[in-house]
Design a protein that fits this description.
This protein is of the alpha/beta class. Helix content is 38%, strand content 15%. The strands form four sheets. Strands 13-14-15-12-11-16-17 form a seven-stranded mixed β-sheet, with helices on both faces. It binds nicotinamide-adenine-dinucleotide (NAD). Nicotinamide-adenine-dinucleotide binds next to helix 8 and helix 9.
Length: 498
């Protein structure tokens, strides 16, 4: 049974939005030399603010500021002192958590329930966690007895978890003594700019964190800048490959966190109600804009009918609508471009013969919206079973034996995550040993913790973020895969540690 709720919108008055923003370079907001662009609310297409598109000259200015701060201040500072700044940032994030959550939901379209309860608490947790490591780096990793920072990190992030991806990048980099220039995604720049204000409030030395806004060209200028020592990229596999080509032959360290097409595998002995919650969380959390989303459901044939019936019943209760409403389960699709991609691939699913179903659901007239959708009758050859849709669309397949489940789960160019639902611990271990995925969740899905490493196999990228492994990617004898010159030195691969 589903309940009707009166609207319960979170007030947006807590956010003090400026009409326009410059770039954050050397501890100050400065005008960019390039044009400006608009950041809109995907829920109603309202223009939220004008933002600068950083030119190559602006990026150069930011990298110089980061280099100065690196050599003169940050790399010289004892770890215990660096830690104090990270703790301070973490505490300010907590103090300003409501403001950050509201702005994240406004700019990104995700439900306030998620930005408030998942994204922002995890951001603070990442800064707290890495603050704790800053003065213990020599004890963090067995082969880093004399850990040294890499230098200036150029970091490029996507739009699906704007603040959280920023925290995954900035917290370990700073803890290890690096300085950063970070470029947020073009559709979600606003919380990164608010984070810049938090850096000012924390009195972080000028130039340690620099934020340059813009689109692909700005990202390219940053990644290819000759004075950047470390490139950390999260985004699509296509752009990840371009970046890998761009830095090949240089001495830059690289970590790539790319796309995914995870299998969420439900065995007949699984607690089915719990599994259905996990399926819903796996694909509809954050509108399915999740690199590790459980976008391929593999159900054991004997329970297929029952799982499908329960899933449809559960989906009929999902509330789609205003991201700022505290009862909303599914918010807006982040951009018109992404909505178009989701629509196109869903049409391909139908054209290729899969059966499409969505619960009855009224979508707002303005803004970018897509109803939660499942496809049955999907085969492994279907494009919707192979390509990352990055939206609230689930492809359902079946299997008979554990071996068949493993084979189907691994039949993908990606390898970021997987989920296993079963009552048997031995089966979880058996499956986890065979699944080619960086993260395997057992009887849960989409759980994140700063102490736990995260990253991919195959076309999902290389290197790890989170946990002690995440430190290695920012230290001079790090485990991150290096291009050309640096790969001559023997090192352990990040993927092997997952
Ligand atoms: P995208 O690759 O289009 O853009 C990501 C970022 O790269 C943006 O900031 C963009 O401006 C920038 N960019 C674009 N072209 C560039 C270039 N040539 N050089 C440098 N920077 C460039 O991806 P997206 O659509 O923003 O994000 C969605 C993708 O991100 C999905 O594939 C998703 O799976 C992936 N993702 C992966 C993880 C992970 O941890 N593995 C996490 C979140 C998202």
């Amino acid at each position: 049974m589903s309940f009707d709720y009166a609207p319960a919108p979170e007030s947006r008055t807590i956010v003090d939005l400026r009409s326009s923003y410059g770039l954050f370079i050397d501890g100050e907001f400065v005008d960019g030399t390039g044009p400006t662009f608009k950041s809109v609310s995907p829920a109603n297409e309202e223009v939220l603010a004008e933002v600068s598109e950083a030119s190559a000259a602006d990026v150069d200015r930011a990298v110089r500021a980061a280099r100065r701060a690196y050599s003169r201040v940050w790399a010289q500072m004892p770890g215990a002192e660096r830690a104090k700044y990270l703790f301070r940032i973490a505490r300010i994030v907590q103090e300003r958590s409501r403001e950050l959550a509201v702005l994240e939901s406004l700019d990104n379209g995700k439900p306030i329930r998620e930005s408030r309860d998942v994204d922002v608490p995890l951001v603070a947790a990442h800064f707290f966690y890495y603050a704790g490591w800053a003065d213990k780096l020599a004890y963090a990793l067995p082969d880093h007895r004399e850990p040294r920072p890499l230098g200036v990190a150029g970091q490029v992030i996507p739009w699906n978890f704007p603040l959280l991806m920023l925290a995954w990048k900035i917290a370990p980099a700073l803890a290890c003594g690096n300085t950063v220039v970070l470029k947020p995604a073009e559709t979600t720049p606003l919380t990164a700019l608010l984070f810049a204000e938090i850096c000012q409030q924390a009195e972080l030395p000028a130039g340690v964190v620099n934020i340059v806004t813009g689109a692909g060209e700005t990202g390219r200028a940053l990644v290819s800048h000759p004075d950047v020592d470390k490139v950390a990229f999260t985004g699509s596999t296509e752009v990840g490959k371009q970046i890998a080509r761009e830095v090949a032959g240089t001495s830059k360290s690289v970590t790539l966190e790319l796309g995914g097409k995870a299998a969420n595998i439900v065995f007949e002995d699984a607690p089915l109600d719990q599994a259905v919650e996990g399926i819903v969380n796996g694909i509809f959390f954050n509108q399915g804009h999740v690199c590790c989303a459980g976008s391929r459901l593999l159900v054991q044939e004997s329970v297929y009918g029952e799982v499908l019936a329960r899933l449809k019943r559960r989906m009929a209760m999902l509330r789609v609508g205003d991201p700022l409403d505290k009862n909303t389960d599914i918010g807006a699709i982040n951009s018109a471009e992404q909505l178009d991609k989701i629509r196109r691939l869903s049409e391909v699913g139908e054209a290729e013969g899969a059966a499409r179903w969505s619960p009855p659901c009224d979508l707002p007239e303005r803004g970018y919206w897509f109803a939660p959708t499942i496809f049955t009758g999907v085969t492994q050859a279907h494009r919707i079973a192979r390509e990352e849709i990055f939206g609230p669309v689930l492809s359902i397949l079946t299997f008979r034996t554990p071996a068949e489940a493993v084979e189907k789960a691994n039949n993908t160019p990606y390898g970021l995550s997987a989920g296993v639902w079963t009552d048997k611990g031995s089966r979880i271990l058996w499956m986890a040993n065979r699944l080619r995925a960086g993260v395997v969740w057992a009887n849960t899905f989409n759980r994140f913790d700063p102490t736990s490493p995260f990253g991919g196999y195959k076309e999902s990228g290389y290197g790890r973020e989170g946990g002690r492994h995440g430190l290695a990617a920012y230290l001079s004898s790090g485990q991150a895969v290096r291009s050309a010159r640096a790969t001559r030195r023997p090192r352990r691969s990040g993927a092997a540690d997952a």
